[in-house]
What we know:
The protein has about 140 residues and is of the alpha+beta class.
Amino acid sequence: MVFRFLIVKFDFKTPGREDDDVEVELKSKADYKQKQSGAAAGKSVAQSKDDERLVLAENILDLLGGTDNIIDVTNCATRLRVNVKDKSVVAPEASFKAIGTHGLVVQGQSIQVIVGLSVPQVREKFESLLKFENLL
């Protein structure tokens, strides 16, 4: 009785009660497999995530003032902790949010970039960028 009341009173859409202008399309198993193989032909999900993390690490490095401004890097569960030489060259928090991080915490020369649960992978990319720049 409760469901009937809610459906009648609020016009909740249930299977078979969709609006007439919405066309329901049934897919076959062959359609599904074709769509999956098309996605597999491009980059895999792991590669695209890896590329996203590399771009994020590059952007964070730029906003922190480049490799010359970095002393050391560590991380905790969600934050990339970076000690910098000169905190005046570090971009404002809005710039960090614009590239996809969740925020920035500044405590003296210690900068914490709030990345999220993917911070270990971002740190790995960040450190590889630091090593690459030092080789040049």
